[in-house]
C-alpha cells in the first residue's frame, strides 16, 4: 500500500489509519505524526522509547500502517521532508564556485570521515580479504559501481573475487560461500534490503562479512562481522538518501586496496604485472 502513496501522503495516510490501531501501535503512530522530520534520523529503538513501547511494536505498527517495515517508512518520510524543503541553495558565483566548494567540503570532512574507523577493524578487514579463498563484492543502487570497481581491483591483485549485479544472483553467490570466504558489502545508508539480506545469508554460511557504510547503527552494520563506517561531515540519513555522496567510500576502498597490495606482497606484484601486460597490449598509438 505504502509504495503507492504520492509524495506528501505519508502523514495523512498515518492519520487516516490511526483510529483503527491497537493502543501500543497508536502510541507509536502518534510519535510518527508528532515528529515526522525527526523520524528520518531516529532508530526504531529511539521511536520505541519515545512511545513507551517495544521495538517490536514499532515494526508491527509500520506493518499495520501498510509499510514494509520501519526502514521503508523512514525513506518515505525523508522523501516527503525533502519535498517540503526550499530549493537547494545555489552559489551566486555559478557552477565553478559550486564545484570548488565541493572540493573544500570534502577537505573539511576528512577528519569526520575517519573518526569511526579503528585500527583493529581495518586490520581485521584487510587480513580477512587477503586470506580469503574467494570474495563476493556486493553493492546495490549507487553502490553497485563501487562494488564492481573494487572487484576488478581485487582481481588485479590476484584475489578470487566476483561482483554479481543482480540481487537474486547476489543471494545465490553468498549462499555458496564457506567459512574460508568473505562477503564485502557496500551500502551508504546500510538499509538497502538486498544488501542486508546478502550479509545475513553470508554469515549463516560462516563467511566473514565486511561492510562499508555511513551509519554505525544500520541494519547492515548489525549484520556484519566487521563494519567500516565512514561518512561526510554533518551527514544525515535523509541527506544520504537525497544527495548521496560516495566520496568517503571511494577513499576508504582506495585505502583498503593499497593496504591489500602491501599485505599480499609478491602475490600482488605478480598479479599486477600480468594485469599491466594485458593493459599495455590494448593501448592505442
TrEMBL record:
Q: Does the keyword NAD apply?
A: no
Q: Which residues does the UniProt record annotate as the domain SIS?
A: 125-266
Which keywords label this protein? DNA-binding, Transcription, Transcription regulation
Instruction: Name the SUPFAM superfamilies on file.
Output: Homeodomain-like, SIS domain
Xref: InterPro entries:
Homeodomain-like_sf, HTH_RpiR, RpiR-like, RpiR-like_SIS, SIS_dom, SIS_dom_sf, WH-like_DNA-bd_sf
Q: HTH rpiR-type domain location, by residue?
A: 8-84
The protein, known as: MurR/RpiR family transcriptional regulator
Biological classification of the source: Bacteria, Bacillati, Actinomycetota, Actinomycetes, Mycobacteriales
